[in-house]
């Protein structure tokens, strides 16, 4: 792929009225946070599989994450999970990150692994356990101060397995009052991102089962609380891009956990089964970033893009790189949408033309565009190949088996 492929592409897009310089700027500006837990051992609910070479501590997780950033230039921050990434001294972890060209990102509290949480955490009917859960999140707020993070991203495993097991409305009240204690402890620049999921580990009801429940909590808490959309957390067939559009319009979309899945919450490589869905999500975001309402534009500009993956059959670093490349590809395609053509077709109620104006952008090969962008920012044009050709994957084998796991 050389200059000629790009020249052809440039001409093709110029003919459609697409300003490629602006497109390139936007691709360069897209930053995606990777999760520390995506580098550690994981598995299914049946078994954790140990891979050779997995990081043994949070410092080594950052070193692996730095490789993803080195070859993509798109992943300068890493989400932490507490207590999986608990350390004595967060200044030290922070300087380690900085020495690798990284920053520490969203802090994810763990409200699902403590034995006390068998009947829930922030919704538990036992007040002591509820307080223990609140205190854990408050500790995470302190950690966020120490790491320089501005995001607390909260996912709850709370729910019930049987009708009548607990009072659904009482649990809702307990959740709100627990969240209010957390919200009040945050600094003004911090945001609380509330994640929802329709089932698992609870199988009858989940306390934050869908976007509406997360939205309602965020609305009651205030401006610093927003919803986090994990693409894998919906029932089959759910129109995720509509949820994205709706939350953007309400200025309540705070961030994403990107991943893909065929069935449940599999946390698989982003875009491996759902590339068109990912493209349509970006279509809604780009549409909102052109909205008349400045608040909606600002919400779109402040979205925290994060990966939530958990690899167990594939090597972790290249799997993360694959996801980043897939996100970039779908984002680049969405940037090729001719929004004025879409608008014209919508005004004329020309269904076929409108659908075509969206889909045709998806059908372009954006490889020459992404190569050009990477050349301009000084990263390898083919990040996957560059990583595989480096000896990093070999060198980490010396860590052996039995690394950090969840
Ligand atoms: C769980 O299903 C959620 O996706 C969480 O966001 C995440 O996987 C976990 O909390 C790791 O921090
Ligand atoms: Zn998630
Ligand atoms: Zn999940
Ligand atoms: Zn997920």
UniProtKB/TrEMBL annotation:
Recorded coiled-coil stretches: none
GO molecular function, one term: isomerase activity
Limits of the Xylose isomerase-like TIM barrel domain: 88-266
Lineage top rank: taxon: Bacteria
Pfam family, one: AP_endonuc_2
UniProt KW keywords: Isomerase, Manganese, Metal-binding
Presence of keyword Nuclease: no
Disulfide bond found in the keyword field: no
PANTHER family listed in its UniProt record: L-RHAMNOSE ISOMERASE
Protein name: L-rhamnose isomerase
Species assigned in the record: Dictyobacter halimunensis
């Amino acid at each position: 792929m050389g200059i000629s492929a790009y020249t052809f592409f440039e001409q093709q897009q110029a003919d459609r009225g697409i300003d490629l310089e602006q497109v390139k700027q936007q691709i360069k500006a897209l930053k995606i946070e990777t999760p520390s837990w995506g580098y550690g051992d994981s598995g299914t609910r049946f078994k954790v599989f140990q891979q050779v070479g997995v990081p043994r501590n949070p410092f080594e997780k950052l070193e692996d994450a730095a490789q993803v950033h080195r070859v993509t230039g798109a992943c300068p921050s890493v989400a932490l999970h507490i207590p999986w990434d608990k350390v004595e001294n967060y200044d030290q972890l922070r300087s380690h990150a900085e020495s690798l060209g990284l920053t520490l990102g969203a802090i994810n509290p763990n409200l699902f692994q403590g034995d006390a949480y068998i009947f829930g955490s922030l919704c538990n009917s036992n007040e002591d356990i509820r307080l223990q859960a609140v205190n854990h999140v408050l500790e995470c707020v302190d950690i966020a101060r120490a790491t320089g993070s501005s995001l607390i991203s909260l996912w709850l495993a709370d729910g019930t397995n049987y009708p009548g097991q607990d009072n659904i409305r009482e649990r809702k009240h307990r959740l709100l009052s627990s969240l209010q204690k957390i919200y009040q402890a945050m600094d003004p620049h911090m945001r609380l991102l509330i994640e929802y999921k329709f089932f698992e580990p609870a199988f009858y009801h989940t306390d934050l089962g869908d976007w509406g429940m997360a939205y309602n909590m965020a609305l009651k808490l205030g401006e610093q609380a927003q919803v986090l959309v994990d693409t894998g957390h919906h029932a089959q067939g759910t129109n995720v891009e509509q949820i994205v559009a709706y939350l953007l319009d309400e200025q309540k979309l705070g961030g994403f956990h990107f991943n893909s899945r065929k069935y449940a919450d599999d946390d698989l490589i982003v875009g491996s089964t759902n590339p068109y869905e990912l493209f349509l999500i970006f279509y809604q975001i780009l549409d909102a970033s052109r909205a008349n309402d400045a608040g909606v534009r600002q919400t779109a500009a402040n979205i925290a893009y994060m990966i939530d993956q958990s690899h167990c059959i594939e090597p972790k670093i290249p799997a993360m790189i694959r996801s980043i490349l897939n996100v970039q590809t779908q984002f680049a395609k969405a940037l090729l949408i001719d929004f004025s053509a879409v608008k014209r077709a919508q005004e004329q109620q020309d269904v076929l033309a409108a659908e075509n104006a969206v889909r045709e952008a998806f059908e372009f090969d954006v490889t020459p565009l992404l190569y050009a962008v990477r050349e301009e920012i000084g990263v390898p044009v083919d990040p996957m190949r560059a990583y595989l050709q480096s000896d990093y994957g070999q060198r980490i084998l010396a860590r052996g088996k039995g690394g950090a796991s969840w």
